[in-house]
Amino acid sequence: MRIGLIGAGRIGSFHAAVLAGADGVGELVVADADPGRAAALAARVGARAASPDAVLMPGAVDAVVITAATAAHAGLITAAARAGLPAFCEKPVALDPAATLRALREVDAAGTLLQLGFQRRFDAGFLAAREALRAGRLGRVHTIRTVTSDPAPPPPEFLPHSGGLIRDCLVHDFDAVRWLTGREVSEVYARGSAGGAAFFREAGDVDTAAALLTLDDGTLVTATATRYNGAGCDVRTELSGERDQWVVGLDGRTPATSAEPAGPGAPARPWGGFLERFDGAYRAELAHFLRAARGEAPNPCPGWEGLWALLVAEACELSRREGRPVRPAEVAERAGLDAPGPR
């Protein structure tokens, strides 16, 4: 297969290295809005450099991987659909429901494949927890707790284009909860704080957030995120049921120190960042996309899944700003959408 990759930044560089050595990839073409950056990455991984427009010309490649800046996602997804290309795109499709909806309708009209990058769906721990939950091994699950903590804040220039902590980070937790349980979020209540660097407050963002979600079967979910976790990258999900309790992300590299006298101390090598923490998941995700693009596997994460997770994030952002509980259905109604049902 000839694969085009558009976006030569941090995640694009990671994906390019994986694709360059992937089975079934005969040629990798790297593109970026900055030609120099595309050329440098192409040289590092043994690929060919081109412009984004050249990659998206009909017949130029067999499939495209979109890892460009968030603001470019919707336009690139639309262009790929119109060119008849299967596409993988890192989340989000866009930062607002209206733009997301327009791009998804382009994909539907073209009848092409769009796989969205929620890599936790390919993580071994999340997969095992989903299987256990769906098999009934935990019994009735009454409480879910999620944690997403970055070891250090991003650069200040990242914030205005990120959508904020809730849309950027917690949206992963929202997607994971929907995917794990097969349920929808009926109501949210969210709070945030910005006690760290001033650039968070200047961007209207927060560096720490917490949300209480109520699922449509009554299950309660607490989801927390922070940009300040000096111990390391911490991504955990606890599923508490009447029969058993499972924890995703609890291993010898979890950046936590037990306060108990006989408990474990700080790990010698905690997870340093999300790319390291989810290395295997990212690789499995791309391998599945290649199979899906060849028609050998179903789409594990259609673009619409990103919209439903975004509606939860939008509801949380609205709740944080207005200090009230918000139903994602309210956000969906404003966008002219019917809320999704259980999957």
From TrEMBL:
<dbReference type="InterPro" id="IPR000683">
    <property type="entry name" value="Gfo/Idh/MocA-like_OxRdtase_N"/>
</dbReference>
<keyword id="KW-0560">Oxidoreductase</keyword>
<dbReference type="InterPro" id="IPR055170">
    <property type="entry name" value="GFO_IDH_MocA-like_dom"/>
</dbReference>
<feature type="compositionally biased region" description="Basic and acidic residues">
    <location>
        <begin position="321"/>
        <end position="336"/>
    </location>
</feature>
<feature type="domain" description="GFO/IDH/MocA-like oxidoreductase">
    <location>
        <begin position="126"/>
        <end position="243"/>
    </location>
</feature>
<dbReference type="InterPro" id="IPR036291">
    <property type="entry name" value="NAD(P)-bd_dom_sf"/>
</dbReference>
<dbReference type="Pfam" id="PF01408">
    <property type="entry name" value="GFO_IDH_MocA"/>
</dbReference>
<feature type="domain" description="Gfo/Idh/MocA-like oxidoreductase N-terminal">
    <location>
        <begin position="1"/>
        <end position="118"/>
    </location>
</feature>
<feature type="region of interest" description="Disordered">
    <location>
        <begin position="321"/>
        <end position="343"/>
    </location>
</feature>
<dbReference type="Pfam" id="PF22725">
    <property type="entry name" value="GFO_IDH_MocA_C3"/>
</dbReference>
<protein>
    <submittedName>
        <fullName>Gfo/Idh/MocA family oxidoreductase</fullName>
    </submittedName>
</protein>
<comment type="similarity">
    <text>Belongs to the Gfo/Idh/MocA family.</text>
</comment>
